[in-house]
């Protein structure tokens, strides 16, 4: 697998050698063992890829359940649960396992996510010992399947406005759960249509006539395979993809559950009907509860990146085998990957995939730390939540874009179901929406930046102005905005002085970092000023926000891209000298420069890029593509997608 | 349906009223009647949309055949054939009918395309009376189903390198058709797996030991429902979408067909085995034959635009009904379409859809003229071929991008198969590849521009240098490149003098046109210079081309966008005063400015946009979005997508 084409070009450039197994070990990192277990399990159950096409919806759902339970028996899916309940007690490993599972059939992945991440995660994080004892042992083995019933037909992103109500009845010491109208039915709920026996239901808690906001309760939804009394279940039916997951709708008609059904880690109701919570403020309580579920976003982001790897592995191998036109009359046809355009289509995507891989390492590490430690560092939690939201958005958009590009790059063959693209594309499409719509998530990221910017998070929270992510607390967020402060920060970003960015080498990663840092700071200050101006002019906050919204989204994107580049640069800097370091350095440069190139209009508009330098960056991107081209197959092979998962013998060889 | 929100804003802007039926009539134009027939047929067969989900592959293929035959009986699908064979004798109407069919199930569309466009088109255009008499009557009714067997496993874009061989045997006066190796099997051929009885097979013609290049012959592939002797057929199996079309692979093992099977409009073989053609040069002959099939590209481009209309109709109506977050505490939640970001996501796509609609009118008109007249104007044919290639590429990419954006803009509901997105997305995905891979098509466009630029087409052709689209005839294409000529042309583009583009109003369509014309000219000259320099330096032509390839693609894209904008501007200018003209004017401005905005980096890099003006364009795009927002529902309703085709009651109301 070692590339033997080492050669010295006219410019003295020496093409690096990549030791593919060594690069795989570097990528797998501390979780190599669990990743290899998942690879083994995927290969053992490879037939599920065919069955996704061959079986009808009902049969495929049963098959996926079977595979999930079999995988659970190997310990693969329970890494995040405490050992005393049959888990592995290692949150980071549970995310790594989930990411790796994304190499395979994505219905299996999402069923695992629903069962162990969402349902299991809610029981673990929102419940207390009584819930853990009651549910975790059977949940971890997959014997007890459950639902995470948050989303409603009428409310996806705005969870605080859910319409399901759970009213406490002190006489019977029960909660009465009711769906108020069609818009309040639980919808798109995994495990609902077929396999779920209980559901964690998010509902407005009403105690003593007072609404205490959204809380979660465990509600049995099936008894002996039939809907429980008062529960009505509909099947969401066939979907674009993920048809091995049984999504459905749940209506509750005065369903009674005991007081103990309330997942009471953060709030409880006494038998007499007194509501109490250690967190005084309702919004803070709500966001604390939601915050414990952040692992879902970390998982999906990583899964998106790994789904992209499958597509890129196929398309890159294909491009290294497939010949198209003759370069000159009578000559042999050229390999696709020798065309400049084809390099431009695939290689920056490979670079971005590597970048997102290392960024995922960082967010997974933060998650592991927050959830393995004492867990009381609010700032670390907020940082994690913002970062998880951002990398989820970028990782899943990357998956959608990459899979599409790879399919097109494989022509008609890419359209046949026997290859992976059909399944990858339709199964992964919803990743940009579930676990938080990507645009809403970026607004969440931006909100954090704007409030940090105003250094005023606590005040805002007390004013109750940060409740609505989309509302962005326009009125008050920006009072402390200071143009002076901004300029100082920008200057700090340019280590070689104010003109340094016009002189530094394009391949100097300090330059690349300074560029993306500057972009973020400048965009943030601009969005803040625009919001403040609107408020100062006493305009309607909704209108002000609406007009600045694309700017706000751009801020968040710039922020996350900066984090991603920092993760990549830091990783490369820490490597020992050798072929892998050189190759990853090329990829890091390609990621950085193609990111700057994609937004070069902004950099020119804001005086940080001259026309000449902008053109030079495009030339450098092309040059990097040519240098990386001979390494391309090794670079995708190093991801270690099991060959059985490629399912594209005609394409990938 | 008339919008009653006429109001005068603070700036004196009066919001136009749109008369929706009048706008529909304007869009349908001269083909209103056939379009309405298709709409009626689509509504009558609306159940096929459900059946696509409910039936297995085999049953759905039969169902689609049935629908196609029933539609054929209404005259809808035969408009392009001569009346004496049961056709409508109106090429333009046949394209309009096909475009409208794209509102419905796309398997039906593609089966119609295979049968009447590709198979029927080849018989009509490449055959002579004997073939017309033998095949057209039953072909037009759909009684005789046939294949268009061009693509091979190993050769998609490079048709001249096909591996199937048809050798003339003068003793028996037959051609012997043989597949040489797995790479030469015909692949992805519609109607092959199940319904085709005959195939138009493209093969290397060998006569008297001499290869005469690729020609087409009619070969029976099934007799009594079984593969004909010597013919082996495989099923391509399940695909990402279009599973109502029976694509398959065909191998020929010494299959004998009579001499008369050769479609002999452009070349023939005498009984004795003498090859003769009125077109002396093999390349010219080959491209003349292929050129007659241009209607396929015109059809697919228009179909892509109409598929995008379906997605936009659903997403726009949804965004006008769905509420998300409260704008301020306690206020009602805002409609999605009132958010600036959501406007930015959907409205430029609506504008571009209108632009591509009017550009499609132009290319359809050119097609009609070329194929209805005496048809000997080579220049008109080449212009048509280039334009068809370009609008096909832009129209189908637009479909892929728009359908994806609309799905994401409808959240989880957009993922359910009961809505149209799942089918639209998977069925239309291959549009970017079939009837010519989009990137290859843009290279074809660029080749035409570069050769026109050198004013030297004939010479090149004689040198045999234009055979390979991808090769682009690097060595000789650019000898006449003249930088001086370029500058004069650029100056001509700026009617108000050299500085005029810095002063003209952004909403002046002459300014917008000058910008996109300048971009095209400048890019073209630049690509030409880079190619010439590489050749002058005696570098390997393949390498030279590879390095300039992305530039070449950019030239083609700029060219086609210029044509699209010209079509839109001209259309709007020709309209009578009124609400529709005002509304289309806003859309035309939005299309022009969002197109310039998307490439503003290029304009800044090339001195045609100052930083201030670039920012002003972005502000203007936002402003146009706000003006168009109240018109959005009327604008999508005017496309006249039959309500039965939306299949999204929960989304579109």
TrEMBL record, chains A, B:
Q: Identify the cofactor(s).
A: FAD
Q: Which domain of life is it from?
A: Bacteria
GO MF annotation terms: acyl-CoA oxidase activity; FAD binding; fatty acid binding
- Where in the cell? Peroxisome
Keyword terms of this UniProt record: FAD, Fatty acid metabolism, Flavoprotein, Lipid metabolism, Oxidoreductase, Peroxisome
| Record family assignment | Belongs to the acyl-CoA oxidase family.
Q: Give the protein name, as stated in the record.
A: acyl-CoA oxidase
Question: Which organism is the protein's source?
Answer: Streptomyces gougerotii
């Amino acid at each position: 697998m070692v590339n033997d084409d080492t050669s010295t070009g006219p410019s003295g450039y020496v093409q690096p050698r990549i030791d593919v197994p060594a690069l795989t070990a570097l990528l797998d990192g501390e979780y190599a063992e669990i990743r290899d277990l998942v690879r083994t399990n995927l290969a053992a159950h490879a037939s599920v890829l065919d069955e996704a096409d061959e079986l009808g919806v009902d049969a495929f759902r049963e098959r996926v359940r079977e595979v999930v339970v079999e995988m659970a028996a190997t310990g693969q899916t329970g890494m995040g649960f405490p050992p005393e309940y049959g888990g592995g007690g290692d949150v980071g490993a549970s995310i790594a396992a989930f990411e790796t599972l994304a190499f395979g059939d994505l219905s299996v992945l999402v069923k695992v996510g629903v069962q162990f991440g969402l349902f299991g995660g809610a029981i673990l994080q929102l419940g207390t010992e009584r819930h853990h004892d009651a549910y975790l042992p059977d949940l971890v083995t997959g014997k007890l399947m459950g639902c995470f019933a948050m989303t409603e037909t009428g409310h996806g992103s705005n969870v605080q406005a859910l319409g399901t109500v759970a009213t406490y009845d002190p006489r019977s010491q029960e909660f009465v759960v009711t769906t108020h109208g069609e818009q309040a039915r639980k919808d798109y709920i995994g495990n609902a249509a077929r396999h779920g026996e209980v559901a964690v239901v998010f509902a407005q808690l009403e105690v003593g006539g007072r609404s205490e906001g959204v809380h979660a309760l465990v509600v049995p939804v099936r008894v002996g395979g039939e809907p429980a009394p008062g529960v009505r279940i509909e099947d969401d039916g066939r979907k674009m993809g993920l048809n091995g997951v049984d999504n459905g709708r749940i209506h509750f008609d005065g369903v009674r559950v005991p007081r103990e059904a309330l997942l009471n880690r953060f709030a409880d109701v006494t038998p007499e009907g007194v509501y109490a919570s250690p967190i005084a403020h309702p919004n803070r309580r709500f966001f604390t509860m939601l915050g414990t579920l952040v692992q879902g976003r970390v998982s999906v982001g990583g899964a998106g990146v790994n789904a992209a790897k499958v597509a890129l592995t196929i398309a890159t191998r294909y491009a290294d085998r497939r010949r198209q036109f003759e370069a000159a009359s009578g000559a042999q046809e050229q390999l696709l990957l020798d065309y400049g355009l084809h390099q431009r289509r695939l290689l920056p995507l490979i670079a971005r995939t590597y970048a997102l891989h290392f960024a995922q390492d960082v967010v997974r590490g933060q998650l592991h730390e927050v959830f393995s430690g004492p867990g009381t560092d609010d700032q670390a939690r907020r940082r994690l939540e913002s970062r998880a939201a951002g990398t989820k958005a970028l990782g899943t958009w990357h998956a959608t874009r990459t899979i599409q590009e790879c399919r097109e790059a494989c022509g008609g063959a890419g359209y046949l179901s026997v290859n992976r693209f059909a399944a990858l594309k339709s199964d992964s499409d919803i990743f940009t929406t579930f676990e938080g719509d990507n645009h809403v998530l970026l607004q969440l990221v931006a909100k954090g930046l704007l409030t940090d910017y105003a250094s005023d998070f606590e005040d805002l929270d007390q004013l109750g102005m940060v409740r609505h992510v989309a509302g962005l607390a326009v009125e008050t967020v920006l009072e402390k905005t200071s143009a002076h402060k901004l300029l100082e920060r920008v200057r700090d970003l340019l280590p070689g002085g104010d003109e340094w960015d016009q002189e530094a080498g394009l391949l100097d990663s300090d330059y690349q970092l300074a560029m993306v840092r500057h972009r973020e700071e400048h965009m943030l200050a601009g969005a803040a000023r625009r919001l403040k101006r609107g408020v100062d002019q006493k305009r309607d906050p909704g209108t002000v926000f609406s007009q600045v919204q694309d700017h706000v989204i751009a801020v968040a994107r710039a922020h996350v891209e900066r984090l991603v580049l920092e993760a990549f640069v830091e990783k490369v800097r820490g490597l020992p000298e050798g072929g892998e370091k050189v190759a990853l350095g090329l990829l890091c440069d390609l990621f950085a420069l193609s990111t700057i190139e994609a937004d070069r209009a902004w950099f020119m508009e804001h005086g940080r890029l001259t026309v000449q330098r902008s053109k030079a960056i495009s030339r450098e991107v092309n040059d990097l593509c040519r240098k990386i081209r001979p390494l391309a197959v090794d670079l995708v092979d190093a991801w270690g997608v099991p060959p059985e998962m490629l399912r594209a013998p005609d394409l990938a060889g």
